[in-house]
Amino acid sequence: MSRSVIFGVNGQDGSYLAELLLEQGNEVYGWIPNDIPVQLDNINHIIDRISLVEGSLKHKGSLFECISDIQPEEIYNFASPSSPYDSWNSSIDVGDYAGLGAARLLEAVRNIKPDSHYYQASSSELFGNPVEIPQNENTLFQPRNPYGIAKLYAHWMTVRYRQQFGLFAISGILFNHESPRRDLKFVTRKIANTAAKIKLGLEVELRLGDLEARRDWGFAKDYTEAILLMMQQDKPEDYVIGTGKTHSVREFCEITFSHLGLDYRDFVVSDKRFMRPTEDRQLVADPSKAINQLDWKPKIEFKQLVKMMVDSDLEKLRSSMYLG
Amino acid sequence: MKKALITGITGQDGSYLAELLLSKGYEVHGLIRRASTFNTKRIDHLYRDPHNGVKVLLFLHYGDLANTGNLIDLIYEIKPDEIYHLAAQSHVRVSFDLPEYTGDITGLGTIRILEAVRKSGLNTRFYQASSSEMYGSAPPPQNENTPFQPRSPYAAAKLYSYWITRNYRRGYRIFACNGILFNHESPRRGETFVTRKVTRAVAAIVAGKQDTLYLGNLDAKRDWGYSPDYVAAMWKMLQHGSPGDFVIGTGEAHSVRELLDEAFGYVNLDWKDYVKIDPRYYRPTEVDYLLADASLAKSELNWEPRIFFKDLVRIMVDADMELLGLDGPGEGKKIMEAHHGKWHRWQDQVISMEG
Predict the structure, then answer these.
(1) Does position B47 have pLDDT exceeding 80, yes or no?
(2) Rounded to an integer, what distance in angstroms lies between the CA atom of residue B201 and that of residue B191?
(3) Which pLDDT score, from 0 to 100, does residue B286 have?
(4) What torsion, rounded to 10 degrees, do the Cα atoms B227, B31, A93, B99 define?
(5) A15, A123, A171, A179: which one is catalytic?
(6) Which of chain B's residues have a Cβ under 8 Å away from the Cβ of A89?
(7) The complex's ipTM?
(8) What is the per-residue pLDDT for B337?
(9) Cross-chain Cβ contact B163/A107 below 8 Å
(10) Other CB atoms within 10 Å distance of the CB of residue B289
(11) Whose CA is closest to B131, among B76, B193, B82, B188?
């Protein structure tokens, strides 16, 4: 049994990881921010089994106190604004939380609990508009938005603290990973949720951007299993995690609507306002290092993932309708 | 008349840039920290400059790179045509002790200024002082396409600023340039940097005030240029037809050992009689071999260095000797006077040096 603290425990990844750690009999501390609004929906079902702590990634003192009070063996840093697209509107804050926040936390670890294992949630946004396809641990980083830039800073600081100060610090470069717990502002959940509403007569159309945009989408819970494996290795290293396959937004819509007995072409409207300037890029993972060294592979296929997300939204909407 | 705002105006580059811009008729505004010990030694002479009797158009403002609101007010008030963002926690070794502070000032300071520029709606051109330290262990020579491998919290923060500058150029069409400057030195270099540390020691040894010089890794190789040449490159970037990123360096790399040979040899001393190795001066992760390929700056900006390694060392030793009241061999002084226009004068060197 070990003691872990998960920064951003209330997010998609934090909540799945908390479940996994609890299943394995570990003591779990869940850190949530006290300076921005938080939703606890993802952890309500386990809230009695984890110890919640509050703090601010903007204040080093708060992080030092947290690590000093808990004395964790494992530290997972998922705490960050999660949407690359919104990051243009809050670029300074994104740099402060996602970038400098990681530096502050690493300082706390180095000063107070240098023998603990540290996981930094990095992102395929590091690659931006990638120079090669697919992308692996050695692919050049070219971030394209303030979120990717802040995450790149956090990545390099993690590598520095490992190489310079000898910390067991890992940067996991995760490609898009989805689940019923994905925030509604992400396209996958937006499709699943709106399609379920259409099925129930609560919506009449689904407005999306570029239907041909392709992503490497995996299941978030599978990815948190990869994170656990990274942290259990003898040596800290960085890993790319993804499925290695891409699917288009159109495919996501097809599967979603046909699962509901509908034809997406009757409901989906392509709306220029949702177009991203960078949709031409080919973000696709080469996860061979993780497959070979961690003996990891994704368990849930794309189709299963889509259906799982739709079923979940349909069920949630139905039960709220009956209750209402 | 153009207006320029320089952050870091009290530093080596900021002070030379202020001289250059004043000589070109700019109204120059400088951002300085409100600190109890701030040091304006490098720019004090600009106020008392008596020649041609014209009022010096230099204005200093208190400002804080950690405070966004303050920067917005300042930029809105000054309405600069050009901003040269040189301020940073610029010491690589110190960044290992102060990683958060380094990230806040050297990294986030840049996005605070760029956000202020964007919100002001002005057509201000922006220069970002990027650094060859961003290349880390990438094999030489390094140019604009060499992948970055930052090896220190300082380099990681500078790389953050580099990408923010590029993205604000692409995303918001701001005329924003990265000058990726390789090491550049001068008599005004801070005394903790190895070049200045060596030339100061040479002068002190000649003066009989010092007998030992402690150094770290003698084999690290650097591309050392002359700061006044490099501030001219900054200015050229912002006058160019389109914004871009440019490597600035001499294209020559020399080891610390060669620096010792040149500096001590210039006054006929053998460094082996004075230098001792102290492992404490080794950087936690040493960048091995930096060598600039500045061909893009040459072809696009028509920029080339005038002073190379050997002459640089002579200039610095002459200045440090004069600072201690000694007569140096004087070759450096002659070289400087031959290579630069009247904006850059020998008599401004010694009075503006850190003692």
Answers:
(1) no
(2) 10
(3) 58
(4) 50
(5) A123
(6) none
(7) 0.92
(8) 85
(9) no
(10) 18
(11) B193
